[in-house]
Amino acid sequence: MNASDLSPAYDLVVIGGGPAGLAAAALAARAGLSTVLFDENPGVGGQIYRAIASSPVKDRAILGEDYWAGVELAAEAGASGASIVTGATVWSLDPSRLVGVSIAGKARLIQAGRVIIATGSLERPFPIPGWTLPGVMSAGGAQTLLKAQGLVPGGRSVMAGGGPLLWLLAAQILRAGGKIDAILDTTPRVNWLRALGHLPDFVLSPYFSKGLRLLREVRARVRVIRVDRLEAVGDDKLREVVFAAGDAEWRMPADLLLLHRGVVPNVNLATAAGVAHAWNERQLCFEPVLDEDFNSSVAGIAVAGDGAGIAGGTAAAERGRIAAIAAVRALKPEAAVPDLQTIRQNLQREAMGRAFLDALNRPAVSFRQPQGDTIVCRCEEVTAKQVRDTADLGCEGPNQMKAFLRCGMGPCQGRLCGLTVTELIAAQRGTTPAEVGYYRLRPPVKPITLSELASLPITEVERKAVER
Amino acid sequence: MFKRLAEAGAAVAITVDGKRVECRAGDTVAAALIAADIDHCRTTPVTGAPRAPYCLMGVCFECLVSVDGVGSRQGCLVPVREGMAVETQIGKREAGR
Fold this sequence. Notes:
heterodimer; A: alpha/beta; 7-stranded mixed beta sheet; 5-stranded parallel beta sheet; 36% helix; B: mainly beta; Ubiquitin-like (UB roll); 5-stranded mixed beta sheet; two-stranded antiparallel ribbon; 32% strand
C-alpha cells in the first residue's frame, strides 16, 4: 500500500506487527473497527516471528514449532479486514493520537481514534570492551539473518551472555548446520541461588521442559564456559575474544561474536508520545505505567506486547487482544468480542516461570555498568569513564548528560545506551535508576527527510495560515 | 563469516561502491552486505572507526548506508532490488563538505 492510499483517519492504528500487533489488529478489525497496522520491516511477524511469510528456512525443525505458531497469527490478521502496511515507519505519535508515518519516502499524518503501540522489545545493551568492532553482533541480529535470509554462522563463531534467546539461537544455528566454537555463559553463580525460591513455579511452567531440552541439545555439541569478564579484541575488526573466570584468562581467535543479555521494552515511541514510564527493578528496565487493559497514562493510547514489560511472545498476543477489546468497547460498545476472562486467564498462565527466568538471567553489575574506555554510546562514541566523570562533576541525569557529552543524541536516539547511562549515573551518585530517570525522547523517533516533511498534504486553511 | 542455506531465494544483483554484488530476493541491504563478507558498511562521524550491522532490527543504526543516492538509510530495513546502488558511508566530518 502507498501512502496516498491511506485514509486520513482510522478507528484504530496499531504500531508494530509482532504477536501483540497482529492479534490486536485481527480482533479489532473483526469487531468492525477500521484498523490499520504499520510495521517498518519488509514483512510482519516482529522479531519472534520474523519473516514468517517469507522465510527460506523450510525445514520446520530448524526454527522449531514455537516459531511456526506465528503463521496462524499472521494469517488471522491478514484475513481480518485490517489494512496491514509493511515498510511503513512510524516516526511520530502525539497525545492527540496523530500518527506520523512514512511509506516509501512519502509521509502522512493519520488521525487515530485509538492507538495500540506494539513496538516490542530490543536486546539489552551489552557494553563490553570492543563491542563496536565489525564482527561483533547481537544474537538477535544473527537470528534475524537465519529466519529471514537463511544465513548461518560458518566461520569461527563465539556466543556470549545468557538468557533463553541465546540458547534457542544456539540450537537453531546447530540444527541449520552452522558452527559455534564456544558459548561463554556470563550468568553469575549467585543467580542460581536467587532463582531457587521461584523454582516450584518454574517447574510447572512450559519453560521448564523446553529450557531443559534446549540446554541438553546445545551442551552436547558446544563447549560452554562460565566467565566473569569478556572482551572483543581487534584492530579494524574482531580478531579474538578474551575472557576470564576468576584469575584465569583465555584468548580465543574468532570472526564472529554474538552477544545477548536478555531483552528490554523498546520505549522510544511511547516515551515520545508522553506515556509515563516507571523503573522495573526486577527486570532492570523502564516500562510504561499501564492499567489492566494496557491503557497508558495518555488517553486512547495503549501499549501491548513486550513493550508493556517483558513477558514473551505468547503473552504478547494475549495482551494485544486485551488492548484491542478495550479499543472496541470504547469505540463500538455494541460489537461482539471474545471472552475477556478467558484471555486474562491465558495471560496469567504465561506469567508462570517468569520470576525464575528473571532472577536467573539478571545480568551482573559488571556487564551493565562498564568501566574505563568501554564505549557506552555507540553513535557518539562516549565512554564509561566520561559518563562516570561527568556524573562526579555534578551531572544529575541523562538529559543533562546529553549537553555535556552528546550521549544518546546520535541516530539510535539512546536505544543502545539509555539504560547504561541511567545506571552509570545512579551508581556514581549513589542513587537509583528510578530517581535518575531516562532520556527525554521527542519525535521524530525515526529519521525522516525534510522533503518528506515538506511534502505532507496540507489543507487550504493550513496553506492560508502561512501564506501572505 | 556467514554461509547460506540451500533454499534461499532467486538471485538479485546490486552494486556496492560500484562493484557488483550477488544477493538473493528476500535479502535486506544489510543482510546482503554480510552475506557478501563486506566487513564494514560505514565509518563513524567522531573517530572514523569502521562499523558493521549490529542488531538487524532497526534499532542500532549501525548499518547506515547510502541507497540509490539517499544517505543514511537503515540497510536492515531496505529490501534489495535489482540494480540498486548501495554506497558505504564515510562518517568523519570533512570541513567544507
